[in-house]
């Protein structure tokens, strides 16, 4: 069977199964994400249902999916709302970091894994998946609840913190020299600050580039800008998801 034909069959069958699981989750009143995760564990590498041709396509598609979820999360905020929300929730953000990161680091040290593993596990237990949490809030209809702004603010703080944490962790893991590691971190910090300043100061001007009266141009433009900034952020050792999130903040209006 031709490779492209097999790719279409595998992707089509997987999407059909996910559609049915989504309907099942809606019927029983839960988010479809747990069912999607189970399907992902059963299919592909390490699963009982191999996907020979679709693996590379799904890897790229999953990265794009995360980027799109984060830009959607960013669209929930205007720059002014973001700053106000971060100020109001800063105590919750600090407590979130302490209460979640310390147990992970302590667990690694107790098991004797060493300080590098402790730093890595601290990040694992600290940071939530913004994409997953945002989708669950949307699926369960909780975006309008009173506690949701605090939850989203904590996710924002975690995403922004990741922009600084990941370069530091990467430099330590690969054993870079102090100067090289500091340079990597500095580049990441400058990149995040520049993107954030552009989003806050020039969001309205950027939004005017896209017109709601030309839907095709609007769709292509937003997708293009999101992926471009996400790619540039990734190149500068900043999470692509953070770049996409800041694009969502920069875009405002209908």
Describe the structure.
The protein is mostly helical. 78% of the residues lie in helices and 0% in strands. The longest helix has 31 residues, at 178-208.
Summed up, what is this model?
Helix content is 78%, strand content 0%.
Poorly predicted tracts of residues: none
- String of helices and strands: HHHHHHHHHHH
Main pleated sheet: none
End-to-end distance, in Å? Answer: 47 Å
**Helix and strand composition category:** mainly alpha
Average pLDDT score:
82
Number of DSSP-assigned strands: 0
Count of discrete alpha- or pi-helical segments spanning 4 or more residues:
11
Shape: globular
The percent range for helix content is over 70%
Radius of gyration: 20 Å
Strand content: under 5%
List keywords for this structure.
254 residues; mainly alpha; 11 helices; globular
Secondary structure layout:
Blueprint: H1 3-28, H2 33-42, H3 55-75, H4 79-88, H5 90-110, H6 115-126, H7 130-139, H8 148-173, H9 178-208, H10 215-235, H11 240-250
Helix pairs in contact: 1-2, 3-7, 3-10, 3-11, 4-8, 5-6, 5-8, 6-8, 7-8, 8-9, 9-11, 10-11
